[in-house]
Amino acid sequence: MWTAWRGSKLHGFAVAALHRVAKHPLGPALMNKPHSQDAFTIERHGDLTLISATPALESLEFGLEEQAAGMIIEQFRHQENPLVVFDLSLVDYFGSMFLALLLRCWKLVQARGGMMALAGVSTRAKELLRLTSLDMVWPIYASRQEAMEALLAD
Question: Following CA atoms 101, 117, 36, 18 in sequence, which dihedral angle do they give, to the nearest 10 degrees?
Fold first, then answer.
């Protein structure tokens, strides 16, 4: 099962649209692609949660990060030893709102005895992580596959 999250405005109110799509037997890559406004998709691979950010994340509206964090965290809130990978390969840059979301997720993952990693981080985003010393907090892998394999091996 994978989930796509989109933040949008409707009559002046922030609305989060959560879309659930039945898992295709050949994997999500062969399913309908997420809408261009989706900020991220969430996939479950056994005990591992894969959160893939899209370019729409770069323009996430102020105030929607709280809803986004809630939807992401709900995926592993009650899971023992959650394994979480954020695939950022489609995102060039992100700001403080997304850093706050990453930190919230990491705190919960740690409290539940799990592990979290980042994958596909752009040069620009790596520099931001380095400046904030967050590159020392999360392991960073070149690809989602590498990150998934590393977390599942531990």
Answer: -60
CA distances for 53 relative to 57, 63, 80, 81, 115, angstroms: 6, 18, 24, 23, 18
In which element (H, E) is residue 103 found?
Answer: helix 96-111
CATH class of residue range 2-153: alpha beta
Cα 101 to Cα 118: distance, rounded to the nearest angstrom:
13
Q: Which two tokens stand for residue 152?
A: 């599942």
What span, in angstroms and rounded, lies between the C-alpha atoms of 33 and 99? 26
Which residue do the tokens 């706050």 mark?
A: 100
Residue predicted with more confidence, 56 or 104 = 104
pLDDT number for residue 154 = 78
- Tell me what the mean pLDDT of segment 59-73 comes to: 75
Look up residue 61 and give its amino acid.
E
Domain ranges in the chain are: 2-153
**Residue 112 pLDDT > 50:** yes
pLDDT at 96: 83
Kind and range of the H or E run holding 107: helix 96-111
